Amino acid sequence: MSLSPTHHHPDGAERPVRQVPEAAAGVDYDVCGTMAPKTYDALMLASFGGPEGQEDVLPFLRNVTGGRGIPDERLEEVAVHYRTNGGVSPINAQNRALIAAIEGELDRRGHDLPVYWGNRNWEPYFPDTLQRMVDDGHRRILTVTTSAYSCYSSCRQYREDMGMAMEKTGLEGTVDLDKTRQYFNHPGFVEPFRDGLREDLLSLRGELGDDARIHVLFVTHSIPTADAEAAGPRELSAQLASEAGAEAGEAEGADLYSAQHLDVAREILAGVPEAEGVEWSLVYQSRSGSPQVPWLEPDINDAMEALAGEGAQTDASGRAVAGFVVVPLGFVSDHMEVIWDLDTEAKDTAAELGVGFRRTGTPGTDARFVSGLVDIVEERMGLRAGRAAVGCFPAWPDVCRPDCCVKVMRDGSVRPTTSAVDAAVRGLAEHGRGAEASEGAPAAETAADVEEA
Predict the structure, then answer these.
(1) Does 89 appear as a known binding residue?
(2) 9 is in an annotated binding site
(3) pTM of the entire predicted model
(4) CB of 402 within 8 A of CB of 423?
(5) Which of 111, 118, 173, 295 has the fewest Cβ atoms surrounding its Cβ within 10 A?
(6) What ranges does the record list as Basic and acidic residues composition bias (predicted)?
(7) Cα–Cα nearest to 36, from 48, 21, 47, 49
(8) Does a structural domain hold residue 114?
(9) What pLDDT, in 10s, does the model give residues 90-137?
């Protein structure tokens, strides 16, 4: 990814919200992967999980890195992030608050849908939550994840998690367990970032002066380049990535994972007149895994050094970069990786460079974000016309193809989908539209476990 700054020149008008037709009545799914309306009797907020105390930190990290044989001494290098916060991940309180907000919005709209909570890597685990829901009498369950974008760790892996939970509990064939679409381009996710960017630009200009050269860094979680290239619907990825990259100023386009973020960055900027003429870049954080495995770059700290460090170029007016506004557009809430990687490490880098620093908030429990999540639930229930989406991408499909966001293993093979979660995915495989779905697949050789990519 080039570090050449992109200049934003808003046209003064809001971009239209894209509306995509619903699936035809009586059809389980259409060619775009849109599910026909269904009824549900409960929701599950599906998330990554995090420790609740010092004694939980190492067991939690062992879960995250399960199967890789990483010694505890190395895990302790990451454990310090949590230990400095009392061993507690902020994501837990944030998820409880989000559940309360979703329940409140559901109640306001007259929906009698209880919201449960399940995690991939810590209590309450998915199988336990699923069993509890069934014990409480629920059989038609819709999951909403705390990951907005489409890639293996943030979408497909949740489908695999749910499939394995169904297998472990023996509930296959007795429970309908579906998942909502990815929502990175839903206006309810984008709009809170616009407010944050506007406020922090004005704040930093108040500190540095109106003529100060400020660079906006849109940041998301780095992932292996192989995972980035496998992200999204395979039949659409090349076309959509090329379109998004070109519109965002990337001459050669981008992988679909990066292209999603580039498009959201453009949409954020389009709604902030105060950002006219600002330079911006997409950067990455939280790289892990073997140094021999290529990951998306540049790292945010390296980017800051290149843009504002010794030898950095000045602009046409002779100005050096005087400050950064960091927008964590890849994340739903201010979890540990946001707090440590941005509020600690990136902020320290800015201080060492002698430049200003602001970090915008994430959607969290912003009313527009919560309302957007409930809108998507209503989409699946046939209670909302159209499928809202902004930018160059259409609304993401409800149903993922069996080869969507495939995980590339170390030997070059891909991991097939485990138990299909959405009934329509089974239908896709049965009707020959995807032959890679199978049960009993081996455990993934995961190169990246993303807290909330």
Answers:
(1) yes
(2) no
(3) 0.86
(4) no
(5) 173
(6) 8-17
(7) 21
(8) no
(9) 999 999 999 999 999 999 999 999 999 999 999 999 999 999 999 999
